[in-house]
Inverse folding.
């Protein structure tokens, strides 16, 4: 006999062996804490948003020097438009995140559910990527502003010989590089661990299509 | 959410709770993990319940949410034994252990099913629950043809595990 047929016979015969919860056992269960990947992803995405917003605004409140130079740089149209743009981007991401979270439904089919969750993860990924790119752009840009506005710094840099210039440039590039790699590794690890099972099951379903 | 909804939900869950137990039986390896997964499926069912319109049977709807929870949503892995990393050696079924009595064969079969991956288990589960390929494909989000192909592969895989 087919193995599964044998199992099927036993499978439906064996149901009395299960614990039989009474209504009174089930009521409290409805309000217990859930251990769902969606909930975890949601908290992480909130943390990401909060983290990057804090990174952007904290120096403004912590250092009066910085506050002053930021206020001054708002006179510059490029800087101003970057700031407005970055706030718009945050709103767009919050909206996208909200939308993709809403689309996750446990009553979808397995593949669709996995896709909705992976889609949410993608939104967070793009948000992180956007922030990393912004770091890449703003560090040289703020150096440039500093060079134009801070006379002492301007003179200092101008007095540099080519070797020192190279060192400064090298240091900036290295700093940005290290920052980006550290963040990238952190996210790879975080989501790698978190979504290992989901990715595996999703590719198992996808594999069937080829 | 109102008491009436809660009452109606618990009443139906109580009646059909074996479906949840069966999902837990396939996806967990011990009583603690079984209870944890049962708990999580209950929460997910309850959360999805307001969207349950009654155009499908409650039990049919339970299969979907239950499997989705076991395969995708449930995250607590501390006490769970991961099927992919399941120590094959420990449960390696040796030819000489193979007994012809039905009981022994069933035990080995259950062990073999536990060695399958999450998706394969879902197929086996729906098959054991006597679901047709149309329903299997709709639950997993694959085509009927692919469901059949995969099912045949699972049968072959089980044979290989049982007769290495």
């Amino acid at each position: 006999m087919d193995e599964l047929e044998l199992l099927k016979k036993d499978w439906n015969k064996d149901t009395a062996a299960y614990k039989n919860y009474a209504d009174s056992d089930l009521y409290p269960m409805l309000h217990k804490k859930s251990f769902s990947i969606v909930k975890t992803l949601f908290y992480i995405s909130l943390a990401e948003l909060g983290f990057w917003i804090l990174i952007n605004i904290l120096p403004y409140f912590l250092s009066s020097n910085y506050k002053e130079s930021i206020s001054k740089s708002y006179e510059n149209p490029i800087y101003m438009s970057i700031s407005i743009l970055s706030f718009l981007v945050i709103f767009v991401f919050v909206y996208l995140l909200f939308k993709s979270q809403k689309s996750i439904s446990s009553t979808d089919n397995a593949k669709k559910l996995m896709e909705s969750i992976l889609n949410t993860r993608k939104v967070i990924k793009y948000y992180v990527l956007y922030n990393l790119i912004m770091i890449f752009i703003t560090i040289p840009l703020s150096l440039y502003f500093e060079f134009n506005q801070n006379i002492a710094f301007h003179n200092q840099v101008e007095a540099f010989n080519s070797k020192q210039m190279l060192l400064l440039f090298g240091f900036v590039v290295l700093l940005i590089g290290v920052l980006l790699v550290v963040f990238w590794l952190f996210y790879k690890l975080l989501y790698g661990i978190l979504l290992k099972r989901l990715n595996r099951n999703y590719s198992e379903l996808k594999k069937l299509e080829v | 959410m109102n008491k009436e909804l809660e009452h109606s939900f618990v009443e139906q869950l109580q009646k059909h709770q074996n479906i949840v137990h069966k999902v837990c039986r396939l996806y967990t390896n011990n009583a603690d993990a079984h209870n944890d997964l049962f708990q999580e499926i209950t929460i997910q069912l309850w959360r999805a319940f307001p969207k349950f319109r009654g155009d499908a049977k409650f039990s049919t709807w339970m299969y979907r949410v239950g499997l989705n929870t076991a395969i995708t949503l449930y995250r607590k892995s501390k006490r769970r034994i991961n099927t992919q990393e399941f120590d094959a050696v420990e449960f390696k079924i040796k030819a000489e252990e193979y007994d012809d009595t039905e009981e022994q064969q069933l035990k080995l079969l259950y062990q073999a099913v536990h060695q399958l991956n999450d998706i394969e288990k879902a197929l086996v589960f729906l098959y054991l629950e006597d679901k047709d390929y149309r329903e299997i494909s709709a639950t997993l989000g694959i085509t009927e043809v692919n469901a059949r192909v995969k099912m045949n592969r699972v049968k072959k895989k089980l044979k290989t595990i049982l007769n290495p």
